[in-house]
Amino acid sequence: MASTSSLALSQALLARAISHHGSDQRVSLPAFSGLKPAGSRASASSRRRNAASMSKIRSLRPLVRAAAVETLEPTTDSSIVDKSVNTIRFLAIDAVEKAKSGHPGLPMGCAPMAHILYDEVMRYNPKNPYWFNRDRFVLSAGHGCMLLYALLHLAGYDSVLEEDLKGFRQWGSKTPGHPENFETPGIEVTTGPLGQGIANAVGLALAEKHLAARFNKPDAEVVDHYTYAILGDGCQMEGISNEACSLAGHWGLGKLIAFYDDNHISIDGDTEIAFTENVDKRFEALGWHVIWVKNGNTGYDEIRAAIKEAKSVTDKPTLIKVTTTIGYGSPNKANSYSVHGAALGEKEVEATRNNLGWPYEPFQVPDEVKSHWSRHTPEGASLESDWNEKYAAYEKKYPEEAAELKSIITGELPAGWEKALPTYTPESPGDATRNLSQQCLNALAKVIPGFLGGSADLASSNMTLLKAFGDFQKATPEERNLRFGVREHGMGAICNGIALHSPGLIPYCATFFVFTDYMRGAMRISALSEAGVIYVMTHDSIGLGEDGPTHQPIEHIASFRAMPNTLMFRPADGNETAGAYKIAVTKRKTPSILALSRQKLPQLPGTSIEAVEKGGYTISDNSSGNKPDVILIGTGSELEIAAQAGEVLRKEGKTVRVVSFVCWELYDEQSDEYKESVLPSDVTARVSIEAASTFGWGKIVGGKGKSIGVDSFGASAPAPLLYKEFGITVEAVVDAAKSLF
Prior knowledge:
Elements lengths: L3 H17 L23 H4 L6 H6 L18 H22 L5 H17 L14 E4 L6 H10 L6 H5 L29 H20 L11 E6 H5 L1 H13 L4 E7 L2 E2 L2 E2 L8 H7 L3 E5 L6 H13 L5 E6 L22 H10 L11 H7 L2 H22 L1 H12 L22 H15 L3 E5 L3 H4 L18 E3 L4 H14 L4 E7 L7 H9 L5 E5 L17 H6 L5 E3 L4 H13 L5 E5 L20 E5 L8 E5 L3 H14 L4 E5 L3 H5 L3 H7 L7 E4 L8 H4 L4 E3 L10 H7 L4 H9 L3
Parallel strand pairs: 1-2, 2-3, 3-7, 6-7, 8-9, 8-10, 10-11, 11-13, 12-13, 15-16, 15-17, 17-18
Antiparallel strand pairs: 4-5, 14-16
Helix pairs in contact: 4-5, 4-6, 5-6, 5-12, 8-10, 8-19, 10-19, 15-16, 17-22, 19-20, 23-28
């Protein structure tokens, strides 16, 4: 039997998940104990099918090269497989038809490979979607999400009941128009923007490889699962997929198996119009093993053989190109763009039912299909229970490693971890906040088992290297420095996958702040999918100097302040940098962005780690009765300027409050009483200063206040001269304040 501690671990993990998904009672604690080849691209003529005669399509049996190893043994006769596959197809057809919205084509074409994956290959427990050692599945082509909802429904996940299928794409349903991990237990990551999902899958597979290398022992393998993905032509076209898949090949992620839905149709029509490269050869060049299943419509044994072969290749990821017919079974719309993103229509649904011999009512699952799939509930429970026993034995034999792994699985941080963060006094030497950030990163890596990350080929500039650890590479996957190369977009999405693999994995990634333009899509998905990635963004303003306007961020801070569920930090010194990291580590459902300086800054009086939690706070004030003559507000490198301007005004007899606004989002969370203590409503004389766009500052300084910033592109020159020319100076703040008296 599993130990009491492993049961507690299971309950902690699942309880955390229930909290993550709100009050939905359909996910409950389990009653059982446990913790919780390459071929050339077919020509256009040879691959076009006669969409008007699906009987001919069904009779096709294209020759497929023999697999390198024997096929997987089918779990049952082909008739039940056919019926299960068609059940998946018609659940998708019926849901899209009822919603009058959606993408039926992909589920209809991908049903065979998806059925074999979920019914014959993958290891999971439908009653505990968060079992740690489950196989992960990512539908990168997220528009085809009814495929995934149908699979979860058949497999017995409580999150997708018949009523949920009928509520597809409707308000409040568990079946939104694209897969959302925060809405539907059983969904690993949020996909929709094409290419993001396969990059997430790379992150999930990286996490498995890293944890297996760290914690598995010759006599105890407690980390052992695969990551599967389905991606389409659109994913292949997006540059992010190439970035991430290049890294997957370089890292040798042998437990990543991706199915390429090779149906040659996109929204605008046949992919001949824009996408004619040889994907097979490209992936071989990226370091992947490539297999081609020529008959993805009915070639069940060929799909099984491909999966078996993929699993036999352990030193590289595998791409299984599966040539399918989009909208398979539809007599008049199959193999056309019209089945990609719209309901079939009542007449075509009836024609498809007749064509595939499907006599059942909408949303009806045949009894024999229900019976066949029902085994996954007890089998899943048994899989988890067996793993629990293995973990319990591991825990007894390797208690230190088990404690670290438990922290990663549950997200429970070690007691007193925050005490490792450095503290500073005004007498401490001044430094660039990027350097102070490095001190924090290295301190955290020593005390948080799941802390890892890296930079987009800028580690020596971003100052992100973990000095106590080596590089995560194919031969050294236990190490914690991730070398992403110049691949910002892929980097961000891979980190999302790492963060969503286990609650206690805390990834960070870094580049110059201006290059968030290359990765904004992934950062937005971080926020949407509640992935607590830490974005370490250096060279945060015109203060970077001579590199000029191509490298000087202007509008970036304002844009991230506008992004929901994102914490945008701009710390002014060491204490604020440490305070930002303290918050970022604890905010596991919210990504954090730290905008850090290249130039050296002083350690300011009045700042503190604790005060950062408030988002905005007073660092100095010579007024009384909460009635200063003027309030000066700054962030980052400009907080020093605000403080100096305050001293000038005080010498002239004014009462001045200086406020750090290190994180607007945290300030917005504070009580009205606290906000009044910082920015009293009766004091309208307010001046803000930030070396960035003034957009948004109006809500802080009010209609009578003034904002000093940079509302044009920067220039190439030494930083001090730039600050003078752009008016980011003490004198400018003093003059603005005086104009308000």
